[in-house]
Design a protein that fits this description.
The complex is a heterodimer.
Chain A: E1 9-13, E2 18-23, E3 32-38, E4 45-50, E5 55-56, E6 61-64, E7 70-75, E8 84-91, E9 107-112
Parallel strand pairs in A: 1-9
Antiparallel strand pairs in A: 2-7, 3-4, 3-8, 5-6, 6-7, 8-9
Chain B: E1 5-7, E2 10-13, E3 19-24, E4 31-37, E5 44-50, E6 53-57, E7 64-68, E8 74-78, E9 87-94, E10 102-104, E11 108-112
Parallel strand pairs in B: 2-11
Antiparallel strand pairs in B: 1-3, 3-8, 4-5, 4-9, 5-6, 7-8, 9-10, 9-11
The chains are: A mainly beta, B mainly beta.
């Protein structure tokens, strides 16, 4: 699986959009970009995933660049409950590594009042 | 529709003992993966079960073993416990028929004393 690079930490004001970047320059054509978040002592929560098109769901939007070497997770209106560690993961879903996620250190997002 | 459920939520064991952790996947999911998360680290892939067989394995010793039952539920067994096995053990379930989405349970906290 391709490696990802994320900032160690980010801050965001409550009510503003939180834009979390992720670099995955070695991503291959059949690898998906997954985003999870983890609040202290809880299991990782699935947010969104995509292959090459931008995706949106009730939680967030995922913007993937045309060359697929980077992506941005957007939380449109951050709340204090969005404070968590956010993981960007690239995985060969459907291939030999199906279901195996390789977690990095993630980005600690702190939303402040 | 229940998500991924794990039991027990917390347990304490003594060095040298054996432990069994249990996981029920999300309804409709047939693939179960196990992860270990040490304090302050991201989750690390242990192994994955599909059709009652181990399909992939991470870099964990043979003291870590598992099983999947016909109803897709799974167990993780750890023998000869070491202090370093103290961690949050996470179960994740997935299915190719569910859009490659991987869901995690809340985990089992294991403390080895």
């Amino acid at each position: 699986d391709a490696k990802t690079t994320q900032p160690t930490s980010m801050d965001c004001a409550e009510g503003r959009a939180a834009n979390l970047p992720c670099n995955h320059s070695t991503i291959s054509g059949n690898e998906y970009v997954y985003w999870y978040r983890q609040i202290h002592s809880q299991g990782p929560q699935y947010i969104i995933h995509g292959l090459k098109n931008n995706e949106t769901n009730e939680m967030a939007s995922l913007i993937i660049t045309e060359d697929r070497k980077s992506s941005t997770l957007i939380l449109p209106h951050a709340t204090l409950r969005d404070t968590a560690v956010y993981y960007c993961i690239v995985s060969n879903a459907g291939g030999t590594s199906y279901g195996k996620l390789t977690f990095g250190q993630g980005t600690i997002l702190t939303v402040h009042p | 529709d229940a998500g991924v459920t794990q039991s027990p939520t917390h347990l304490i064991k003594t060095r040298g003992q054996q432990v069994t952790l249990r996981c029920s996947p999300k309804s409709g999911h047939d693939t179960v993966s196990w992860y270990q998360q040490a304090l302050g680290q991201g989750p690390q892939f242990i192994f994955q079960y599909y059709e009652e067989e181990e399909r992939q394995r991470g870099n964990f010793p043979d003291r870590f073993s598992g099983h999947q039952f016909p109803n897709y539920s799974s167990e993780l067994n750890v023998n000869a416990l070491l202090l370093g096995d103290s961690a949050l053990y996470l179960c994740a379930s997935s299915s190719l028929t569910d859009g490659n989405t991987i869901y995690f349970g809340e985990g089992s906290w294991l403390t080895v004393v």
